[in-house]
Amino acid sequence: MSAIPVESLLTLPTELLYLILDQLDTNDILFSFRNVCTQFRAITDSYNRYKINLNDAVPKTIIRRIRRSIRLENIASLNFSSSHSMSNKIKLFFSRVGTDQLLCLRSLKVCGLIERDLNVIMHHITTISTLASLSLAENYRKPMSADTIAALSSVIALQGLHNLVLHVDISTMNAIVWPDQCTIRQLIMRVCNHNQLHRILRHSPNLQTIVLNNCNMTEISEVAFSNPYIELNSLTLDSNGMSIDQIESLLSLLPSLLYLKLTSYNVSVNYLRRFSQWEQFIRHKLPLLKEFKFYIHNDKCCHNIIENIESFIDAFRTPFWLENKRWFVTLRCIYDGLRSNIILYSSQDSCTNLSDHSCLNTISYVISTTIDHNAAQTNTLWSARLNLTKMMNAVPFNEAKRLIYHNLYKITQLVLDITDKWPLGSLELLLTLINLSQLTEIHLFISETHVLWTKPIHMLLEQAFNVHTFGISYADDLTPSIMDISSMVSRRVDHLIVQTKNIDCISAVLDCFDHLSSVTFVNLQNYPRTWAKIIEQVNKQGNKYSLIHDDKFLQVLFDKDLSELSKIEQSHKRIKSSHYQQNP
């Protein structure tokens, strides 16, 4: 009988061992893997994808060992980061180094180095033809010298450089000499003005992607941007201070965009109105656009806008947005007791998310465009999140506050933050503001660790008799109250959501609520082990079930087989679980 061959790392092809080394830290390779045997030592000698990270924490002894153990032509990536002087370490690393020895260097990242150290590094790489990626974050305490900028300009002119990240100030950007035929394909900049952008686009025929983190185009020149740039297909624009006219002027010259991400803060109401009419602008100026993400914030919302807030989202309910492009839009109105903010942003899908620390506010609305897959029409979902204590403190309502609460009668999803004992008279006030009979979802976030007040919850659910989804998050352990909650949840409720980390609570819920269509557990602790216990619990009960989960939640679907899972709307699941993601 022939012996069964024993598999080991020693039998693997060198190419596979290289892939393993790609996942290891350089210190692990040099000081552990390399010392196992002579074969591994030979492999580390020929391995040419080393990633070297040098910072304040790396002692000179380690740098000396790296220099002794690694041939410079085997280094693929260098990363220098420090806010203090690294002159001695840099001098030690580059001692007796000729640029012709860094034959495989493809990536260089320099972050926060003082000007003197940056100058040394720039001059060492000005002729390295293999360099494909450069990331530079300037130390802003001292301006970059003319000599360093000249060296940086030489690096940018390297024919093999494809990816460039420049986190430098505006004066440095102005001083950089951009080469005539730049090979950059992807460019990320911290600051940029219209003259610099024009110069870059004019000299970069291969440029496909630009990320502008702080774009100042307030003096955009129509003459400078007279010709379209058809090569660029991806733009991320933080349009700080730009008007909607300036943004449209810039985008009109980029007709080949496939991807656009736009961020604008403190915009005017006119900006919002113009933006809501962008269907025609995109059709004519950006006909190839496939993916569009945006986040637009207005912090000076007047009362008449609040009263007619839905008009802002009407323009996004057309077939162009929902069917042709499948770009969903969410509008959030937040009132913090002093002023109102409107945030208009793109949604990945037809989901509503109320979780962004809304409990700090008196009230927030969320309106999202969706598609009703059961009918040839579009819907608007109205959700609201209320802090009961702050709402009671706002009584009596003046005209401004009346307008803030005006839209509550439209909502179908209600989230209540209870940060103190259930306020007396709050249920009666809710009945005057909200048509509870049209609610389909109620979620409660109870933050104080006092005795759970079941009576007002029971009265609320009695009035909201069409609720089919009920969720609860309680700062204390819910386990002793599960029977009370079970008695409150009517047979009309199909879906229960519980935020808990307690396995005993999970077991109690599964015992009491197996008649529901689904139970969702959010914010699970040590979730793989918790999943196993949940599965064991359900198996004991003998129920037919299936599971949907990720690392944030687990949903148990009772009495459903796998063939039926496709009928369950994923967006509905996300609507419910998203409330809890920012609530520990």
TrEMBL record:
Taxonomy, superkingdom: Eukaryota
Ranges of residues in domain F-box: 6-54
Pfam families with a match to the protein in the record: F-box
Protein name: F-box domain-containing protein
